[in-house]
Amino acid sequence: MDDKSTHDGRFSGLPGRPGKIIAVHLSYASRADQRGRRPGAPSYFFKASSSVSATGSVIERPAGTELLAFEGEIALVIGTAARHVSLAEAWDHVGWVTAANDFGVYDLRAPDKGSNVRSKGGDGFTPIGAALIDARTVDPASLRLRTWVNGEIVQDDTAAGLIFPLAQFVADLSQHFTLEPGDVILTGTPAGSSVIVPGDVVEVEVDVPGGPTSGRLVTTVVQGAGPAYDPSLGSLPAVDDNQRADAWGTTPPAGAGISSRRSAPREATGASAAPDPRSLSERSEPKRPDPLPAELRAKLEAVPVAGLSAQLRKRGLNNVTIDGVRPLHPEAKLVGLARTLRFVPNREDLFASHGGGYNAQKRAFDAVGEGEVIVIEARGETGSGTLGDILAIRAHAQGAAGIVTDGGVRDADAVTAVGIPVYTAGAHPAVLGRRHVPWDADLTIACGGTAVQPGDVIVGDRDGVIVIPPGIVEEVVDAALAQEDEDAWVAARVAEGHPVDGLFPPNAQWRARYEAEASTDSPTRSLSERSETRRPDPRNEAHR
Q1: Looking at the predicted structure, is the pLDDT value of residue 462 above 70?
Q2: Quick check: 428 pLDDT over 90?
């Protein structure tokens, strides 16, 4: 490495200018689950050494683009040449470890077809630093990676969350070419990568908790002034909803367009631009309006689950009750739209890859919105908790309508004290990993023997929890309310001493009387009146 390169400020976080930068495409379990695919072996792409920058630098979002995304990564710097090295000896060839940020412009990704030459090769697109950690002083499995955007932590994972161990990248690459001193391997990013806009400040740190650290690698985003890309020379930036979904790292709710989820670009032109006041989670997963109209929600709150069950049965839907769950708050009504989470049976290797870091369970509780219900598939297994008080607090703070799990609840008293409606199959003191692996979210699941899809209407009371397909909910609730009025009238007649034969259900004579009396009642009956007890108390003296 020449002296000029050593003193170039862009490479101050490295021993010198690297000859090669090799980046891993997909390496963390959390990111693979987010993308819906898991590689059987590592795959790679090259980045230009001219893309390297140091801590405190700026990165330009190119003119005419919208999807500049960060990727916090652990960077390995080769210390001694490696060629055909075994997995067991590969780590000995790593000289240093540090933090990196593998920025990319998703607007340019499609023409690259996986090479990432244009999408990730821009000047300043590979910040590395701030300081080097001697690889000989750390256990590679103990390394932790964290990323912040405007002071908000958005990535927090460890090397234990990797699909492949760090040393495997060194051994694998050495089969194909010589890794030379100073070469850099960018080892991939976990879930949490998302879009940033001009004015944002991104920080990445690699450390061993309680041990050595790279310090924070700081990069500020600015708006590129141009010139715009010339169409006569090559492919132009282009985005579609799939690119936006990948860039933001989120999946839109059913029926919603992704484009509505992206933040509008702000015209910042320098490092002094103010950061976007919204948090990254607010920008990438904006607070959704309650998809249940207020009037419909009020009707659902007024009608008992038993009445809804009867109407669904009339429509041929018998398998719509979530069985085996009981409420921690029997006095509270549960009404909301389903967001789903699935656990699979615990297997030690799968828990090692999926249980740590920003796993599916944490992502589901962070993503739940106002008026939504987290429904958890735990296979009826109550031998450990599927949530505790911290996650219940998070859901409550997000405005969630409630939580339903056919598994256990840990810290049951503390969860109850949070106040959010929770239905569970029971309490258990053990942690998640005893029986479950958090696997995936926002998909069709089985909870309490019933299929539940994201967006289904969930209603719960003392009798239990029912699932209503959203396409028929208006019809079902209106019919249930009408039936409740009729049943209340029948109950009053029985309390007066009439026999149930011919009255329950009403024959033609009784129905004619009911309809005549109903037509003379007040044309409007409040939902609060409907929700009060309709059937007279048979213990009342007036009904004896």
Answers
A1: yes
A2: yes
